[in-house]
Amino acid sequence: MPLLTRNVPAPVAIEVRAGAVAGLTPLLADGRISSGGRVAVAVGPGQGADIAAQVAHAVPSATVMTINSGSLDGALELISSLRTSWYDAVVGIGGGKTLDAAKYAASMVGLPFVAVATNLSNDGLASPVASLESHGRKASFGVHIPIAVFVDIDYVRKAPLRHTRSGIGDVVSNLSAVADWQLAGAVNDEPVDGLAVAMARSAAEALVSRTDPIDDDAFLSTLAESLILSGLAMTVAGTSRPCSGGCHEISHALDASHGSPGLHGEQVGMGALFASWLRDDMALVAPIDACLQRYGLPRVPADLGVSTDDFCAAVLEAPDTRPDRFTILEHLAMDKQEVRERVDAFIAAFGR
Ligand SMILES: [Zn+2]
Question: Which of 20, 224, 271, 346 might form a disulfide with 152, Cβ 3.0–4.6 angstroms?
């Protein structure tokens, strides 16, 4: 019997628990990732310095490098530093922006990358995408996925609450992204990858109906695992499609032309509610709305300090941010007046 399967690239180690950082140094020292301990440790602002000190103590041959900004410039500076010597691997320690800059740099110099997350603000932990800011604009770059991912719940719990909320919005937006992908499959015959859909949707469903406190260990572990699964869903699909639909197009437009009013996950969470409402998909609208309310995320533009005019402009600009992507926004192809009517009705339905 022929066994036709596909191989899915995945990190060799994933640890999500309180005290996970303690497992990092044995992994680096046991030779699986770095035979000689010649690792570059890239640290961002915040809690990363504390972990970097632990790594430097346990792996004396490690070189600690500071990422001054999680931007393309910060990543290019890191690439220059990495090229001054020989390293076995890059360990990135920090939040979403730091990890994206370190992941991009490691990919560019062809070194394995270990992600150590100190907050859960977005699904970049294990994704094949790095989002970097350059000259005031954010751009997405394809990169290699991490060889190992560590999330230490003790550090995550100390991160600003807003970062955790952002992670919730990014995970929950998978539900809308998947629905947009299936719409593209039905309308445009676009191929839809069932495995990527299963992973992205399961990740969101594990979280969307939870009611436990946002700083609970069990909740934070599920959030971390859902973000990691989202990244792997993108790897399986070979595109960000399973985790990025009209919700993300609106967020990209808010980033490009309206000064990034919120964190990524705050913007895409609201975008997911709006896109699901546009699709008239009440089976998604109710749980997404309830989840955003329960954990204190923005639901309407005013919650992010965005005027109705600016949000309408972002909705109109959104399809241009990902010209190759078909979502409910491209499907409806609304003109300026239609957008205004829909946005007004949305705000009337969900505004406080
Ligand atoms: Zn996202």
Answer: 20
Tokens representing 116 are 């150590």
Three-class SS state of 227: helix
CA of 212 to the centre of ligand 1 (A): 23
Q: What is the structure's pLDDT at 51?
A: 79
pLDDT of amino acid 37: 73
Beta bridge partners of 90: 40, 113
Residue 111 alpha carbon to ligand 1 centre in Å: 25
CATH architecture type of domain 161-350: Up-down Bundle (1.20)
Distance from residue 35's CA to the centre of ligand 1 (Å)? 35
Q: Where are the domains of the chain?
A: 13-158, 161-350
Residues of the chain with pLDDT under 50: none
Q: What is the pLDDT of residue 225?
A: 97
Average pLDDT, the chain: 92
Q: CA-to-CA distance for 196 and 233, rounded, in angstroms?
A: 5
Distance from the CA of 6 to the center of ligand 1, in angstroms?
26
Task: Tell me the C-alpha distance between 349 and 294, whole Å.
Answer: 17
> What is the residue type of 86?
W
C-alpha span between 149 and 29 (Å, rounded): 16
What spacing in Å lies between the alpha carbon of 4 and ligand 1's midpoint?
Answer: 32
Question: What pLDDT score does 4 carry?
Answer: 84
